[in-house]
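F.,

This is the one I mentioned.
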C-alpha cells in the first residue's frame, strides 16, 4: 500500500478508534493519523500471527485491522495514563 493510502487509512482508523475508546475530544487529526498508522502495524502483526490477515486482503480488511490495532494501542495508553481502561 502506498504512503498516501496509509496516511488516509491511518487517519480514518485512528479517528474510529478514538470514538470507540471515547478519546475523540483529546486527539487532533495528527494524533489520529499516528495512532491509526501505529495501530495498523499492531493490527497487521496480530492478523499475520493469527492468520486473520492474508497477503491478498483488500483495503477494507486493512482498515479493520488498523482499527483493532489502534483500539489496542489506545487501551494500553489508557492503562499507562490512568491505570485503567475506559
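My design for it:
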Amino acid at each position: 500500500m502506498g504512503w498516501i493510502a496509509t496516511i488516509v487509512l491511518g487517519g480514518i482508523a485512528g479517528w474510529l478508534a478514538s470514538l470507540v475508546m471515547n478519546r475523540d475530544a483529546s486527539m487532533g487529526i495528527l494524533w489520529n493519523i499516528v495512532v491509526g498508522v501505529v495501530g495498523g502495524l499492531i493490527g497487521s502483526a496480530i492478523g499475520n500471527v493469527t492468520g486473520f490477515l492474508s497477503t491478498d486482503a483488500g483495503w477494507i480488511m486493512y482498515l479493520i485491522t488498523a482499527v483493532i490495532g489502534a483500539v489496542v494501542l489506545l487501551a494500553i495508553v489508557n492503562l499507562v495514563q490512568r491505570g485503567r481502561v475506559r
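Residues 15 and 32 are 5 Å apart (CA to CA).

Talk soon.
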